[in-house]
Amino acid sequence: MASSHQLKNFDVFLSFRGEDTRRGFVSHLHKALTQHSIQTFIDDNLTRGENISEELLKVIENSSVSIIVFSKNYASSSWCLDELTKIIECTKKVLPVFYQVDPSEVRKQKGDFGRVLTKLEKKIKDKTKVQRWRDALSEAANISGWDDKNR
Question: What is the pTM of this model?
Answer without folding.
Answer: 0.86
